[in-house]
Design brief:
By secondary structure, the protein is mainly alpha-helical. It has nine helices and two strands, in the order αααααββαααα. It is 64% helix and 3% strand. The radius of gyration is 23 Å and the shape is globular.
Length: 245
């Protein structure tokens, strides 16, 4: 009886073929470990993702597309400037908590001048000052708190345990979150959500054309972006098997 052999692999390339199999097995193991470490709630997260995706397709995306199509350019600019100015209040508070006093002075100046000379933020009169991105989730990361498991929050979208806590903490200094008049506060949340969703329309097209599993792509992109923000765009290099934030 003839012994079975790998007739489809030339003998000269058999060592290379076996090495590729070994590397593939190692990569699969690392990806499995990555998922267990960063996404232990994957079953729940996928259900929450499906719910959010259905809600988005039925309501949020059509409304955002209508906003982009029918809102005059001047109106869109004023609305985006207004919410950007409100965001700068939260950013400035987190600048201080991270001891970034020079950045806090810059962001605080944006709030002061845009609120006064910019008619409550409708006009951006501080375009020469950079717009920063800081929140309490980043502040926790700045002081060493790990990201924790990936977590999708119904309606609100991608997050993590640390960022979920940060989002709640930011609501105590957010101008919208601290507004006592409930109808006004809820209306502001809705408009802000529409503006945010409209800003994602172009990026969504790229994602749909480039990926098969949108859930995994969004998860990895979110975690990478948040890590970059915590380290101000210069995160320390990690070993492939190192999954701590």
């Amino acid at each position: 009886m003839m012994k079975p052999e790998l007739s489809f692999v030339p003998a000269s390339r058999l060592p290379l073929f076996l090495a590729c199999l070994l590397l593939s097995a190692c990569s699969t193991t690392h990806l499995s470990r990555y998922t267990q470490e960063k996404d232990p709630f994957e079953s729940y997260n996928r259900m929450a993702y499906s719910f959010n995706d259905a809600l988005d397709r039925a309501i949020l995306k059509p409304v955002a597309q209508g906003y982009v199509k029918y809102m005059p350019q001047l109106g869109k600019m004023a609305t985006e400037n207004f919410f950007s100015n409100l965001d700068d209040v939260t950013v400035t508070c987190n600048d201080v908590l991270q001891l970034k006093f020079k950045q806090a002075a810059s962001d605080g100046s944006r709030v002061l001048f845009n609120t006064t000379f910019g008619l409550f933020g409708l006009i951006n009169v501080t375009s020469r000052l950079p717009k920063h991105n800081e929140d309490f989730g980043q502040t926790l990361g700045y002081w060493g708190a790990a990201s924790g498991p990936y977590l999708i929050i119904p309606v609100l979208g991608p997050s993590s345990v640390r960022d979920g806590v940060g989002r709640y903490a930011d609501s105590f200094v957010s101008v919208v979150g601290t507004t006592d008049h409930v109808p006004t506060r809820n209306s502001a949340y809705v408009v802000e959500g529409i503006v945010t969703r409209a800003g994602l329309l172009d990026n969504e097209k790229i994602l749909e054309n480039a990926t098969i599993d949108r859930y995994s792509s969004l998860r990895d992109a979110y975690l990478m972006r948040r890590r970059s923000l915590v380290y101000d765009g210069d995160p320390p290099r990690q070993r492939y098997e190192d999954f701590d934030d």
